Amino acid sequence: MSRIERQLDDLRAKISSELPADVSVSDVKYEGPELVIYTRDPKRFAERGDLVRNLASTFRKRITIRPDPDALSPPEQARDRIESVIPDEAGVTDLDFHIDTGEVVIEAEKPGMVIGRHGSTLREITREVGWTPEVVRTPPIESSTVSNVRNFLKQEREERRTILERVGRQIHREEMSNDEYVRITTLGCCREVGRAAFVLSTPETRILIDCGDKPGAEDEVPYLQVPEALGAGPQNLDAVVLTHAHLDHSALIPLLFKYGYDGPIYCTEPTRDLMGLLTLDYLDVAAKEGRTPPYESEMVREAIKHTIPLEYGDVTDIAPDVKLTFHNAGHILGSAISHFHVGEGLYNVCFSGDIHYKDTRLFNGAVNDFPRVETLVLESTYGGRNDYQTDQEDSERKLKEVIKRTHDQGGKVLIPAFAVGRSQEIMLVLEQAMRSGDIPEMPVHLDGMIWEATAIHTTYPEYLRDDLRDRIFHDDENPFLADQFNHIDGGEEERQEVADGGPCIVLSTSGMVEGGPIMSWLRHVGGDEKSTMVFVGYQAQGTLGRRIQSGWDEIPINDYDASGRSRTLNLEMDVETVDGFSGHADRQGLMNFVKTMNPRPEKVLCVHGDESSTQDLSSALYHEFNMRTFAPKNLETFRFV
After folding, report:
1. 397 shares a domain with 281
2. Suppose 251 and one of 141, 247, 387, 571 were both cysteines; which one would form an S-S bond, judging by CB atoms 3.0 to 4.6 Å apart?
3. Residue 570: which CATH number?
4. What is the four-CA torsion angle of 588, 593, 599, 602, rounded to 10 degrees?
5. pLDDT, tens digit (0-9, with 9 covering 90-100), for 383-438
6. What 8-state DSSP symbol labels residue 598?
7. What is the C-alpha to C-alpha distance for residues 479 and 464, in angstroms, rounded to an integer?
8. Within this chain, do residues 599 and 558 fall inside the same structural domain, yes or no?
9. In a 10 Å sphere around its CB, with 0-12 CB exposed, 13-18 middle and 19+ buried, how is residue 458 labelled?
């Protein structure tokens, strides 16, 4: 018998001793970070809501209760009884029974009403039928991504359980080393923006945090070949943690599976869905531009299959000596500050990912209150001494002025926007401005992935700002369903119709003008001197967006004449930059994040910014707070214990 089997047998005996005599335990298994208890008495667990809480507290593990198949009501009989328990107003759209795990997945328009106060309705369902309910939200806006991910995971349930059991055994294996150290190795995004990738190492564990591409530099990828990462083989990595779905953090996650990685990816649920959306589009754009994609779409599915979603605030074992907790980063949907607790109080490291410190229309500001943090790895995108963004109200005022001016002269407003985050922020501004009469009512055309990304936002309103979440819960107040918004799904013909029509606003990907439908819009309206292009997001060095922003007016458009020479477009439209809509904290926001951080870290590594930004921020934090700070280069290793 293996050590893990003996450990599980021991746990089963201890759990049985903690439970009342009339509550049985038939099996105990690890599935990922969770301890799964199988029982012939699920109804008794449901009747005594404190049993699971007490077990979780005693054994310091996340616990799931599953019924034995012989304790379950037949699905058809269970369906009727479940529907009688759940209020009609919950809007149940589907019930999906899984006999192998004793779970029933309940999809509803209002999941809160299925859950009930403190889980009361869920417990009542189990008391009635024995099945363990799992609740998911019916998207208010139909999302092919959410639907495809859910259907795929449903099809792969059996293999996914095998993966989770293997991961669980890895997490709960016996520690093999008596050494104590914590190291961070930088594989990318140091003194540059893009290709985020770090390895957190202990004697027991190696964890990769992010694995992205570099905008405008397709050949520059993270240094995955080094021994700390995949150089010693894919089995060298125990886990991958993804802070958020933007491609400069997520694009090359599927590549790991091409190289043979077969372990877990930890992220939030919306990050999982958005990663699928963005990486598949990443492959599509590469193919359309004649580039060889770095991996096949099958690898995206492998990544999704290996994802273990975590919620903000849940402390989770991801290795024998490492616990992970996600906290809201305020950057995009599901973005997470990743807090690692190493050993039994040995050391604590925080990776900020990308953060926005203040509240925005979309999100509550980033969390910076932690039990302990010795080292912070902090983004520095706007860390330069002059990187101060315009106040949000001033930014919105300027955007509305540009829109009114362009409308009055009969032109169109073209806004290159990231599909995830900035587009939804701008949509909220436009909806409110038209509703209050600050700008004239006009069509707002959404091109590229923006509509699909918006649908995913409405699927996970619990990750949005409190007041916005409440509006989405009421169909008649959902701002994303405003009449002005039109999803461009007719391709070039529809774009030509819009270009030939009257004043309007176009939000289109890509946000840095690196391919995608924005190139088509440049061809259609770039030569119109009455129209305006407005940049509302960060334009990385080397991107076409940065060149246009810097004054370029002759634009390559990936079109060729009869002799094979590349055509260019003379840009006649006005070009404006409206700061303040970025999903990143500016210099003051980054300083305030550290200033008010509780507790304040001893060391800060300033990353994810160009050379001057990282060095400026590092110097400022050192002088202001008398802490040890660094602006590391790629391929540096820091030892902290």
Report:
1. no
2. 247
3. 3.40.50.10890
4. -60
5. 999 998 888 899 999 999 999 999 999 999 999 998 998 999 999 999 999 999 99
6. B
7. 13
8. no
9. buried
